[in-house]
């Protein structure tokens, strides 16, 4: 029965305060942003602090509702009623208003970075939008 017996060694052989090889001392300390109430701030997935942007993946029309663009929110947040602009090849082409936000077949009021969404746009027809257009918050 002595085949699997080994000498037990401690798992942590260095001091807890010793630096980790390959890691700078600045990155070895975790920093947590705290709100004024003292609770940690959770910004969720993606980058929220930047202005809203979304790259168009698909465009279609819903009869009686309007033009819908789908894509993943790259940065920021978008709310129903927000004014946005459509940018093609770095040049603003037109402006529109978000009249609806849908995520996974549910109407939502806001979409944040990382969410796959469909945006119902007012003031734009289907033929005015193409794949890879950028929808961003008006500046």
Structure description:
By secondary structure, this protein is mainly beta. The protein has a domain at 53-137: Elongation Factor Tu (Ef-tu), domain 3. The chain contains no helices and 10 strands. The chain has strands at 53-55, 58-62, 66-75, 77-79, 83-88, 91-103, 106-108, 110-112, 116-122, 134-137. The strands form 2 sheets. The chain has a 6-stranded antiparallel β-barrel with strand order 1-3-9-6-5-10. Strands 4-8 form a two-stranded antiparallel ribbon. β2 (58-62) and β3 (66-75) form a beta hairpin.
Uncertain regions: pLDDT < 50 for 5+ in a row?
27-32
Instruction: List the helices and strands in order.
Output: EEEEEEEEEE
C-alpha Rg, in Å? 24 Å
Secondary-structure class: mainly beta
CATH architecture of one domain: Beta Barrel
Distance between the termini: 74 Å
Which class of one domain in CATH terms?
A: Mainly Beta
Instruction: Estimate what percentage of residues fall within beta strands.
Output: 35-45%
Within CATH, the superfamily of one domain carries the name Translation factors
Main sheet record: 6 strands, antiparallel, barrel
List the defining traits of the structure above.
single chain; mainly beta; 139 residues
Helix-strand blueprint:
Elements: E1 53-55, E2 58-62, E3 66-75, E4 77-79, E5 83-88, E6 91-103, E7 106-108, E8 110-112, E9 116-122, E10 134-137
Antiparallel strand pairs: 1-3, 1-10, 2-3, 3-9, 4-8, 5-6, 5-10, 6-7, 6-9
């Amino acid at each position: 029965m002595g085949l699997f017996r080994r000498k037990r060694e401690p798992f942590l052989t260095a001091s807890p305060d010793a630096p980790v090889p390959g890691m700078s001392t600045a990155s070895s300390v975790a920093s947590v942003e705290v709100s004024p109430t003292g609770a940690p701030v959770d910004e969720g997935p993606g980058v929220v602090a930047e202005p809203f942007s979304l790259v168009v993946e698909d465009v279609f029309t819903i009869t009686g509702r309007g033009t819908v663009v789908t894509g993943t929110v790259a940065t920021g947040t978008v709310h129903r009623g927000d004014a946005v602009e459509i940018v093609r090849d770095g040049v603003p082409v037109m402006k529109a208003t978000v009249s609806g936000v849908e995520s996974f077949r549910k109407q939502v009021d806001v979409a944040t970075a990382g969410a796959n969404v469909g945006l119902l746009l007012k003031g734009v027809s289907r033929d005015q939008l193409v794949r890879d257009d950028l929808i961003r918050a008006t500046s």
